[in-house]
């Protein structure tokens, strides 16, 4: 084990629901067009992520030689009654408007409370094996935001992070900070690209 730990957080590739701007939480939707995905790094041997199909499929394309370690704690938030619907379909719903006004204190009907979701994602992250130097995670946009709030070098609000499907967040920790669950020392945002061959 080295003195530095690097974590790559990557959002799954788009689903049909994402492209239609529908709320997509625990629905196990497939990718919209997986044939367009390229291999990112064939040297990665372990990938960690959500147990949902869209993350598994993305990881299989990005990291074709890796074992996938699925963890339900890395699922997107449960949107409950809003699942699968668009803003236009919900905009006259009083519960939806209350949730938009204060999503931290107002969970969706039959959905997950914000703090429960964040705690679940952070718990999953804290249970990753400690003995690796590099980690690749394929998860959901909300999960990435939750982990950045908890582990980025400086604390920023949840919604301050833009998490598109084609960008990765690279967190660098000292080994001591990693083992203690402390914040990383640096955060880079980069496009998801194929690793150059030597």
Mean pLDDT: 96
Q: Spell out the helices and strands N to C.
A: EHEHEHHHEHEHE
The residue ranges in which pLDDT falls below 50 over 5 or more consecutive positions are none
* Cross-sheet strand order for the largest sheet: 3-2-4-1-5-6
What does the radius of gyration come to? Answer: 17 Å
**Overall number of strands:** 6
Q: What overall form do the CA principal axes indicate?
A: globular
Strand content: 15-25%
Keywords: Hydrolase
Pfam families: His_Phos_1
GO molecular function: fructose-2,6-bisphosphate 2-phosphatase activity
InterPro entries: His_Pase_superF_clade-1 (IPR013078), His_PPase_superfam (IPR029033), Phosphoglycerate_Mutase (IPR051695)
Task: Characterise the protein shown here.
The protein is α/β, with parallel strands linked by helices and about 200 residues long. The protein has 7 helices and 6 strands. A 6-stranded mixed sheet has the order 3-2-4-1-5-6. The chain is globular and about 55 Å long. The two termini are about 25 Å apart. The mean pLDDT is about 95. Keywords: Hydrolase. This is Histidine phosphatase family protein. One of its GO terms (biological process) is negative regulation of glycolytic process. GO terms for molecular function: fructose-2,6-bisphosphate 2-phosphatase activity.
What is the topological layout?
Blueprint: E1 4-11, H1 16-19, E2 46-49, H2 53-62, E3 67-70, H3 87-90, H4 94-101, H5 114-126, E4 134-139, H6 141-151, E5 167-174, H7 175-180, E6 186-191
Helix pairs in contact: 5-6
